[in-house]
Design a protein that fits this description.
Dihydrofolate Reductase, subunit A, single chain
């Protein structure tokens, strides 16, 4: 699908090319994956309408969403997002799986679900898909029963926090050691985090985010729903550099790099 690039230059490109820039530019740190947030938002900052993210975007947004999944080793989301959006197999299109193979990636990205208290239903399509690989990051010592996916668990005891690493109260567990284990144990070099807002805030407070892809819809939703980043204030606020901006159907697709 075509996009019109408006920054840093003017050109016509595609959702596939816009997403491929992520894998091309990613430079993973030595001790964790390169981590990218991906959100769609209304013009007044809401990331859900009627409790779901689907009504916000247009067709170009949906195409870019799936193309970004095709570029990374793992897709991460909080338990609330996975449950509300009823996650299933992450890459369903066979052409995208073939393109991942050609790029040296696994046909399907690893699914990483963050659930401090293991508040997940076993009947989720993702957990019932035998082709899916799932890592659940949790503080709970319990394990889910009746799942058909290949499920593993990462717990705080698997990797004690290093000196200076934060325990984020909003996330209820320290994420930096878990991200380090994803790199060391599962070979994950790139992670796409799709929400929710509390998880995004926790990653930002531990300085674990490298980029933000933000799809901005020409819609006003009002209400009191979640915004991109939740939890306690970021002090100081995270500064970002705009890398690219694309447009399609009045929707803007913005890519930012977090400043260090």
């Amino acid at each position: 699908m075509e996009l019109r690039r408006v920054h840093p230059d003017s050109a016509v490109t595609t959702t596939a090319d816009a997403a491929a820039a992520l894998r091309h530019d990613a430079e993973p740190p030595a001790d964790r994956p390169y981590t990218v947030l991906n959100f769609a938002s209304t013009a007044d900052g809401r990331i859900t309408i009627g409790g779901r993210s689907g009504p916000i975007g247009n067709e170009a947004d949906r195409e870019l969403f799936h193309e970004l999944r095709g570029q990374v080793d793992a897709v991460m989301a909080g338990a609330g997002t996975v449950g509300t959006e009823r996650y299933g197999r992450l890459v369903r299109d066979e052409d995208r799986r073939e393109r991942r193979r050609a790029a040296g990636l696994e046909p399907d990205p690893l699914a990483v679900v963050v659930s401090a208290r293991l508040s997940l239903e076993s009947d989720l399509p993702l957990l019932q898909d035998p082709d899916s690989r799932v890592v659940i990051v949790t503080e709970s010592e319990l394990e889910l029963e009746g799942v058909r996916a290949r499920v593993e668990y990462l717990r705080p005891g698997d990797a004690p926090a290093a000196a200076g690493e934060l325990r984020d109260r909003a996330a209820m567990l320290a994420l930096a050691p878990m991200m380090r284990l994803l790199r060391e144990r599962h070979g994950v070099a790139t992670v796409l985090c799709e929400g929710g807002s509390v998880l995004a805030g926790a990653l930002l407070r531990e300085h674990l985010v490298d980029e933000l892809f933000l799809s901005l819809a020409p819609k006003l939703a009002a209400g009191t729903g979640p915004t991109i980043v939740g939890g306690p204030p970021l002090d100081p606020p995270a500064e970002m550099e705009l890398l690219t901006a694309h447009e399609a159907g009045g929707h803007l697709f913005l890519r930012y790099r977090l400043q260090r």
